[in-house]
Specification:
The complex is a heterodimer of chains A (115) and B (111).
Chain A lengths: L3 E2 L4 E5 L4 E3 L2 E2 L7 E7 L6 E7 L7 E2 L2 E6 L4 E6 L8 E8 L7 E3 L3 E6 L1
Parallel strand pairs in A: 2-12
Antiparallel strand pairs in A: 1-4, 3-9, 5-6, 5-10, 7-8, 8-9, 10-11, 10-12
Chain B lengths: L4 E3 L2 E4 L5 E6 L6 E7 L6 E7 L2 E5 L7 E4 L6 E5 L8 E8 L5 E2 L3 E5 L1
Parallel strand pairs in B: 2-11
Antiparallel strand pairs in B: 1-3, 3-8, 4-5, 4-9, 5-6, 7-8, 9-10, 9-11
Classes of the chains: A mainly beta (115), B mainly beta (111).
Chain lengths: 115, 111
């Protein structure tokens, strides 16, 4: 079965510092999408950043960037200048190996930003 | 509000009762997904629709579960004869393509 692995159940970072969340995945496809979603406490899941596998350039969205290593099947998220509002569960997800666009999620990393 | 809307937000039910949840997707999105999320885990895929057609169901979706999307608009997820193991957050998402937009979820507690 297709899997996504997040090996860090919890992370903590000081406000204004930088933190990196890890994710590995498996797929036999060549073209696919990878995502990081943020789920704040008791709030809905929102998309943080998206990477298309055929693009060599790492995606960046303001303070959020990814390190996409296609050969290693690694997809880490870097949050720069961490803010208190970044406190949330972060889920890495890959697109399933079919045309459905359904998502395969990792188990999540709980990030706490300390003031 | 043009986001994905789910109703109810919370549902407490006794074991053995039937429950139904509703999802209103973003209007121009033709794909609609249901996921289940248990405490401390990532969401797991249950089923999805393209317009009104239900194209895939996960093995997680036992015969006590049924989902519909009449006319390709809102969707309902019904659980019959609920069991304690059904307690979870049920998430709905809609998408025009690869990027999914999630609702706030319905938290089901079976007592």
């Amino acid at each position: 079965a297709q899997t996504v692995t997040q090996s860090q159940p919890e992370m903590s970072v000081q406000e204004a510092e930088t933190v990196t969340l890890s994710c590995t995945y498996d797929t036999s496809e060549n073209n696919y999408y990878l995502f990081w979603y943020k789920q704040p406490p008791s709030r809905q899941m929102i998309l943080v950043i998206r990477q298309e596998a055929y693009k060599q350039q790492n995606a960046t969205e303001n303070r959020f960037s990814v390190n996409f290593q296609k050969a290693a099947k690694s997809f880490s998220l870097k949050i720069s200048d961490s803010q208190l509002g970044d406190t949330a569960m972060y889920f890495c997800a890959s697109e399933a190996m079919d045309s459905s666009y359904k998502l395969i999620f990792g188990s999540g990393t709980r990030l706490l930003v300390r003031p | 509000d043009t986001g994905v809307s789910q109703d109810p937000r919370h549902k407490i039910t006794k074991r053995g009762q039937n429950v139904t949840f509703r999802c209103d997707p973003i209007s121009e999105h033709n794909r609609l997904y249901w996921y289940r999320q248990t405490l401390g885990q990532g969401p797991e895929f249950l089923t999805y629709f393209q317009n009104e057609a239900q194209l895939e169901k996960s093995r997680l979706l036992s015969d006590r579960f049924s989902a519909e999307r009449p006319k390709g608009s809102f969707s309902t997820l019904e659980i019959q004869r609920t069991e304690q193991g059904d307690s979870a957050m049920y998430l709905c998402a809609s998408s025009p393509g690869p990027e999914a937009f999630f609702g706030q979820g319905t938290r089901l507690t079976v007592v």
